[in-house]
Amino acid sequence: MKTITNAFPTATFNAAESKATKLKSTLLAASVLAASMITGTVAAQELSIQEKAVAVISSIETGDAKAVSYINPEKYIQHNLAVGDGLAGFGEVLQMLPEGSAKAQVKRSFQDGDFVVTHTEYNFFGPKVGFDVFRFEEGQIVEHWDNLQEIAKPNASGRTQLDGATKVVDLEKTDQNKQLVSGFVKDILIGGDMAKINNYIDNEDSAYLQHNPGVADGLSGLGEALGALAEAGMPMVYTANHKILGQGNFVLSISEGQFMNNHVAFYDLFRVDNGKIVEHWDTIETIPARSEWKNDNGKFGF
């Protein structure tokens, strides 16, 4: 493993970040606990699991009680380390919920087998961007992972953390696109072999659209960010990749490492076109010390 000074620096690690994570989980808690008070299971309208996941996220804002029937109240494994496992853990944080303040708008989503990924704009005590990953069994959610970050101003190229392409296409290329991103993570993010960068990203600035607020478009923006990080003595280190999820042109990489001397989770979403990475979104979240965990499931555990 090599230490690399990466082009994805965005996280601000402070008490507000931890509070935001807890609050987001609290919002989910309100919906999930409501499900336990519904007699029986609300019949699904033949929705896909992707539609169910989006409905659950949207219900944080809308209060739609039907959406919570898509969560299995008897088996719900939580990987948000600020929340206890299952419904009991949600109950402990329910009192933190600020009534009427929740906002949740899913910007993009896709399905990979039993997994659904959502990329969402939240607003609770300030604007946030988050990735959520849900695992389904027999049509119900049984496991949840997430990664949150505060929303920043647009980057030097005028792009935000949430705008850009949303349409899932090229379904027949799903496997090869996942392999491409897996190679990028292995060679570039973990291996630090920048000589291979053109295997994954073309040179023209217009060929690589960047949504990280600290990085401009293209490999030129990448180079400037690398230089700034090196000068500041703040390397970003990817130590392990835990999951690659994708559908068509969208692929999410979930990794672990260090940034600004913190143990962090990296969620990197890539759009692939014609065998190259052409667009990138991300979130970085600090992993709390083991003594602070509210469950034993870990941040990853795929």
TrEMBL record:
BP terms from Gene Ontology: polyketide metabolic process
Gene3D superfamilies on file: 3.10.450.50
Descriptive protein name: SnoaL-like domain-containing protein
Source organism (scientific name): Vibrio coralliirubri
